[in-house]
Amino acid sequence: MSVGRDLDDPDSENEATGPSEAGPIAYVGTILRWAPGSGTGVVRSASGRDIPFDLEHVIVLGELMAGPRSYALSNGLKVGFDLGWTSRGLRVTKLFPPP
Q: pTM value?
């Protein structure tokens, strides 16, 4: 009597790899506050949660880079982002153009 799924059987259902179970690759939100002088800001996620960031600890990718240490960020800009946990809670770890 088999109790689990057969991982070697391609016809066996596998929740981890099924396309319907795939989650979003990135989060999408809007820059709510951006202070270029201090390099800090807040992103509001699509669900309405406000998540802070400090560019000293964020990887900025793609069109959001205007040059070395220069960023094309502004209040109201739609962005893609990734998150991480710190000792101070949830923080933005990457910013990039929205998918």
A: 0.71
